[in-house]
């Protein structure tokens, strides 16, 4: 039977990986020091960034699998659950990691901005694949954080550790931007599929049964996390996924408004609005006229 491990403190995770705890709220790990292990389920109350050096277990997230290869960064936020599955009974973990407790960054610049790093909510199949140059930068960041952890704790420790983690995460944002560019052909295929899904949604009965389509709905249809999907659309189009959907709604609404046999309320319901006044408000905000005035002007 699969064993479940719960890691709510840094010391618990350090002990699991055969590491001494030098700071109660943050740790840099070398997984080669850990004992051989078998497949398991892990839940985290910590922020974790894992740099996998070699293939060392398939990680299952939801219904998807991801085979780790050399130089892959995976981000996990508190509350997430991962399943580590293996094709052999036991395996030796390899790679490095940074783990830190949410309390470490409270009251710091990183604490205020942590929610902006959307990659903590990406699926594991949307992991960051590093070049050799990027991998070196990651190790340099880990080394700087570890050096600060080893210092005697003083009034500057928390700020310096948090600022070094923030620098590392800012580099990760840069690396993800690069990955979006290098995967441009794949991304364009996703954008085309998104457009197809949008069009088919509004010629179906889904607006009546489901209502207005959400970003999460299309992300799920495309087998992506909502955060990754939203970031991809923003980088490809310059618009948020929500703006993209609303633009499509307005474009379809304009065509429907020319049909004088339909009332504005009927059009609103056809588009998936629960309340017609919400449709009128969105239309006026985007077009500058109410639906009725737009119909009269045209």
TrEMBL record:
Domain of life from the UniProt record: Bacteria
Keywords annotated in UniProt: DNA-binding, Transcription, Transcription regulation
A Pfam family per the record: HTH_18
Domain HTH araC/xylS-type: residue ranges: 192-297
SUPFAM superfamilies to which the protein is assigned, alphabetical: Homeodomain-like
GO molecular function (one): sequence-specific DNA binding
Name recorded for this polypeptide: AraC-like DNA-binding protein
Native source species: Chryseobacterium shigense
């Amino acid at each position: 039977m699969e064993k479940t491990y719960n890691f709510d403190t840094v010391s618990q995770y350090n002990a699991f990986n055969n590491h001494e705890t030098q700071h109660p709220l943050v740790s840099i790990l070398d997984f080669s020091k850990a004992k051989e292990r078998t497949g398991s389920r892990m839940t985290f109350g910590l922020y974790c960034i894992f740099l996998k050096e070699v293939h060392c277990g398939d990680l299952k997230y939801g219904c998807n699998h991801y085979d780790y290869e050399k130089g892959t960064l995976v981000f996990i936020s508190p509350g997430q659950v991962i399943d580590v599955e293996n094709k052999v009974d036991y395996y030796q973990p390899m790679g490095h990691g940074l783990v830190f407790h949410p309390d470490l960054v409270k009251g710091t610049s990183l604490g205020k901005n942590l929610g902006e790093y959307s990659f903590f909510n990406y699926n594991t199949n949307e992991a960051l694949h590093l070049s050799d140059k990027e991998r070196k930068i990651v190790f340099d960041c880990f080394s700087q954080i570890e050096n600060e952890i080893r210092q005697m704790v003083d009034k500057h420790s928390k700020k310096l550790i948090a600022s070094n983690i923030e620098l590392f995460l800012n580099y990760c944002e840069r690396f993800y931007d690069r990955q979006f560019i290098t995967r441009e052909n794949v991304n364009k295929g996703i954008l085309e599929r998104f457009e197809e899904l949008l069009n088919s949604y509004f010629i179906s009965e889904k607006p009546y049964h489901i209502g207005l389509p959400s970003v999460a709905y299309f992300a799920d249809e495309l087998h992506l996390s909502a955060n990754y999907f939203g970031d991809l659309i923003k980088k490809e189009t310059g618009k948020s996924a929500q703006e993209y959907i609303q633009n499509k709604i307005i474009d379809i609404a304009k065509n429907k408004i020319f049909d004088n046999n339909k009332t504005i309320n009927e059009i609103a319901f056809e588009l998936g609005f629960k309340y017609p006044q919400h449709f009128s408000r969105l239309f006026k905000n985007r077009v500058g006229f109410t639906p009725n005035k737009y119909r009269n002007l045209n």
